[in-house]
């Protein structure tokens, strides 16, 4: 299980970093609305991790699947947050100020506030996506008698 969520967590983080650098290359990295695609990247990474883990098991238990999803997204969120902190503190000091200005927030809060926001958004996205995917992938508790009465 550790191999599954660490592998997919790292791949998800790399995809997030590549997407950000692609936006930087194009010049669109200062538009926070484009971070919606980060949710799609998280979704693909978590879903693939859950499918991989579920394919090696006879039955995917909810709590084990939830653990895989949370750790996959958690690893990706932490790695991406570390990358963004490095980027904002070492490479582009004006990036955080520009984002905070576009949010109409005080720039005194600056980079630390943005780093914490990135981590919180990553963890919350992971929680929501993992819970949603587990609803799709869990085994139904419906009985055979109940199943014959459905379409």
From TrEMBL:
The keyword Nuclease does not apply. Keywords: Membrane, Transmembrane, Transmembrane helix. This is DUF4199 domain-containing protein. It comes from the Bacteria. InterPro entries: DUF4199 (IPR025250). It comes from Aequorivita ciconiae. The lineage of its organism: Bacteria, Pseudomonadati, Bacteroidota, Flavobacteriia, Flavobacteriales. The chain crosses the membrane at residues 7-26, 32-50, 70-89, 109-131.
């Amino acid at each position: 299980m550790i191999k599954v969520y660490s592998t997919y967590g790292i791949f998800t983080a790399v995809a997030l970093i590549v997407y950000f650098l692609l936006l930087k290359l194009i010049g669109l990295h200062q538009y926070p609305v484009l971070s919606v695609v980060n949710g799609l990247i998280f979704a693909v990474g978590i879903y693939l991790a859950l499918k991989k883990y579920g394919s090696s098991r006879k039955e995917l238990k909810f709590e084990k699947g939830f653990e895989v999803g949370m750790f996959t997204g958690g690893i990706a969120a932490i790695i991406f947050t570390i990358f963004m902190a490095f980027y904002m503190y070492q490479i582009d000091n004006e990036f955080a100020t520009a984002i905070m200005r576009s949010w109409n927030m005080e720039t005194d809060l600056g980079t630390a506030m943005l780093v914490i926001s990135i981590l919180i958004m990553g963890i919350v996205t992971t929680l929501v996506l993992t819970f949603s995917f587990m609803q799709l992938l869990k085994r139904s508790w419906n009985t055979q008698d109940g199943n014959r009465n459905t379409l």
